[in-house]
Write a structure and sequence with these properties.
- It is a single chain.
- The protein is mainly beta.
- The chain has one domain.
- Helices cover 7% and strands 34% of the residues.
- Strands 1-4-5-8-7-6-9 form a seven-stranded antiparallel sheet. It has a two-stranded antiparallel sheet with strand order 2-3.
- A hairpin with a 4-residue loop joins strand 6 (98-103) and strand 7.
- The radius of gyration is 15 Å and the shape is globular.
- The model has no long low-confidence stretch (mean pLDDT 92).
């Protein structure tokens, strides 16, 4: 499932994108959201839904997803977008590192630059990495390969 907000909301600030691939009993994202923007209607195996009027793209839900299926996209910068992803590998990239942006199938699509590396024990040993992508690829690029 790939939900994105209206064009109006996308222009106002960062927002969460949840890409759950299947219905399984899982709800850590619901519990993690401090604004109550994520909900699951019906039984716990239903896919989560986002209330974009409540979501402010705070990033808190990203490391809580055991399926690594939550991203935050910020389309407000003028010349590019920033995509925030969960990252569980070592060593972690550093701000300013250049990388190759990959789509969901692992295909190289564009050069990206790491803009943020967030890590905290409250993130369950999962870092959050922010990187630039061309605006037209905001909903296609979901990972990166660091350049050697």
């Amino acid at each position: 499932m790939n939900m994105i907000p209206s064009d109006e909301k996308r222009k106002k600030g960062p927002y969460v994108v949840i890409e759950c691939p299947e219905k399984i009993p899982c709800d850590p994202c619901v519990e993690a959201c401090p604004r109550g923007a994520i909900s699951i209607k019906g039984s716990m195996i239903e896919l989560p839904e986002v209330d974009y009027e409540k979501c402010n793209g705070c990033l808190v839900c990203i490391p809580k997803c055991p399926g690594l299926a939550i991203f935050v996209v910020d389309e407000t910068p003028k010349d590019y977008s920033i995509v925030y992803i969960p990252y569980e590998f070592l060593p972690r990239p550093k701000k300013g590192d250049k990388a190759m942006g990959l789509d969901r199938e692992g295909r190289e699509r564009c050069e990206v630059e790491i803009t943020k590396v967030l890590y905290s024990p409250k993130f369950d040993r999962c870092a959050i990495i922010g990187f630039t992508v061309p605006k037209e690829l905001s909903h296609e690029i979901r990972f990166f390969r660091l350049k050697k």
